[in-house]
């Protein structure tokens, strides 16, 4: 009754619509490396006289024909004979059609042997190529099979042969009978068979199953492409690098295609061929896909078209019982339609729904549902929607659980905007309670687009906007901030929009809302502007919110404004900003508790904990724990995960087990909390840097930074770019560090504390590894100066490495050590290695060597997790330990020298060797490094050590400073300089510097 296979167009055919940059030549094969490996092995075996067969199956558009084309190209490149034929359901049946087409192709290329060459099988070949192929008069299928087998042997005798037969689901019974004979006998022939068929039930599928069971053929079942493979396909179609793919286009390609290559290509060509169609609301269905879906649906008959048209109203997934009731048909009447729709790969069973016994189906890919929906006229769509919503509410009174969202969608299609907005809002509330932030944001966005004057009350409109902005802030999807073309009328000049879509226009146009509600909206927009990295914009929204509350005090909205003010305060450059922000956060906590606003109270507690963590960790943990308790008691999953990230971060700073942070990050990603996930990822990246897992840190930082840049999250992006600078600094890579800091510079307004952190965590650390200790001290001093001007909530070394250097220099003592111990940041495992060794140095100076050795041992135990920092500590304290007689300075220096040499930190390794010589210890000679000498100097016989001296001479460094920099004697420097002048033929060092500057820089 129903046509079960109008297949998707083959995915190796060109898409409609030219576009500059789109691929015009042969497409790159994506995601089929394993399959091509099997095919290549079969071709190799065929050339060696060991024939074989492969059965390629898969749904329409998945790339079967494309894989066959690649196989034919590979065979031709190997010098094999190739032939191809395909079955067809168009027109009258033609016996043996794919075989005959392949034979004609061989004849056209001059590869077909004459009938005489096949002996008594020649007449069979002649009959196949003539007009008389009537099975009633033709030879038996076995004779035809043997004829084709001998022909393949003759064609591939000296070089092998590949025969490709496509679309075998449309093949006649005779062709399949011949193929069965070939499958059983191909093994001794120099030929390979590549047989292609769909997955639909039928004779071809049964043949493939039998061949696989008895080992006569290898099965290659092609599945959809995964996310990375879709990215590669999009990039290949556009002719660009994968990293350059537009994220929105990739998102549409992944979500709309279900990984089907044909759909991906059609979508890419359609979107890329029409400028400006990447944004929200762009026409999503390419003409090629829409035509294919339309033909498939038409093949299901009137009832099938009605069923699928109504199903499309629900989106990709739809509940069958609701459709049965709406259509007035029972399951038995619809079962034939469903089987045909499944066989055509339009829909697929989707398992149980939200309640036991609910039967759900889904369109194979989202664009199929959208194409069917687009084909419905306005009246037809509204009529279907009214019937469907009546059925849904009858089957599920009160719309419990997840039924609220599909009901809202149906009301929208039916034209009842007021009820759709109400139900979308309720559905979003339920999704937020389950932690499905991205889904809630989508529902709220739909609701907001339906709001028009007269359809929603001012209070309901304000509530919708508040929920939407809250979802935007926690998801980081700043592109979803509502905008309105009008000016910010009614709110003065403080809340005007128009500089990047932060929603100021929307709030201005919502002047019909009560002033207290507009104040709450501007407070939320202030936090979003802070997240975006626009402190001036955040302050403008905050000023507007405060002015709106003047004369309109509101217990329910003042805490929201106070919390926004605390966040804004952190973007201000002022010595008292942390104290002011903490006071505002405490006021927000108290006000939120009085107004019974648990989410606001919890978020204020988290901010308060972050502000107090460095100085009073127990108090911070109490705040975090209290926020988590609120989240658990009030069922607030977003707040719970936020609190878990903070608590996990504190725990990891002591036990250095980041597993809990990783778990919290994964949950944040699952819930769609992207800013929070990036925050946790930053903690993990810094941990990886300290552990010297630099490649892992790079991947974390680069992936998160790309995502933050795409979303416009200026503040998280600033922190991630700082982390990249730290990563480079901890490897002694100054040029890369400088480049990272240059990328950070435009974002310093978004994160003012980054100035202090960039000096303490990056610049100074790099200087220490380069043995530029004076510069490191100046950079640490600069970090402290920035912190005094604008206190940082994070640790930049004040209670660790700065303390150790101060003690070694004699500038700090017991008082400073005690202050560091009182600060919670001084108790982290990272800082314990530095602070512990600072204590050991003081004990050694006090004539207590045994105690110093014991304290140093504990500090170095803490340092075991940090390979580079441990060796840096050993190098820094070795001289003091040697002079005051504690610890094992010689062994420490040898350990540090070995590490620094292996890490390519030559200056630090040289300093260790110099110290060892000064202690009278033997020093391992390092003769490597000549590869660092430029060829122009290497020709003169310049050694690696002489090149180190040459680089400093070239910038006119004095012999004394060279000796200090390289930790060698002045006499040794003079010797190296003399050798340089003699070998290069220069009369003096000035002449050498003039000519060698470019070579040594």
Characterization of this structure:
This protein is mostly helical. Helices cover 63% and strands 4% of the residues. Strands 2-3-4-1-5 form a five-stranded parallel β-sheet, sandwiched between helices. Mean pLDDT is 86; it is low at 1-20, 275-280, 353-358 and 484-500.
Strand and helix map with partners:
Elements: H1 33-47, E1 52-57, H2 64-77, E2 81-86, H3 97-108, H4 122-129, H5 141-155, E3 161-166, H6 173-185, E4 191-197, H7 203-213, E5 218-221, H8 227-238, H9 247-257, H10 261-272, H11 287-298, H12 301-312, E6 317-319, H13 320-327, H14 331-343, E7 347-352, E8 359-363, H15 366-374, H16 378-395, H17 404-414, H18 417-433, H19 437-450, H20 458-475, H21 504-509, H22 515-532, H23 535-549, H24 558-569, H25 577-594, H26 598-612, H27 617-634, H28 637-655, H29 659-671, H30 674-690, H31 694-711, H32 714-729, H33 734-744, H34 754-769, H35 773-789, H36 801-809, H37 814-822, H38 829-845, H39 849-862, H40 867-884, H41 889-902, H42 906-918, H43 935-938, H44 944-954, H45 959-966, H46 970-984, H47 989-1000
Parallel strand pairs: 1-4, 1-5, 2-3, 3-4
Antiparallel strand pairs: 6-8, 7-8
Helix pairs in contact: 1-2, 4-5, 5-6, 6-7, 8-10, 9-10, 11-15, 12-14, 12-15, 13-16, 16-17, 17-18, 18-19, 18-20, 19-20, 20-22, 22-23, 22-24, 23-24, 24-25, 24-26, 25-26, 26-27, 26-28, 27-28, 28-29, 29-30, 30-31, 30-32, 31-32, 32-33, 32-34, 34-35, 36-38, 37-38, 38-39, 38-40, 40-41, 40-42, 41-42, ...
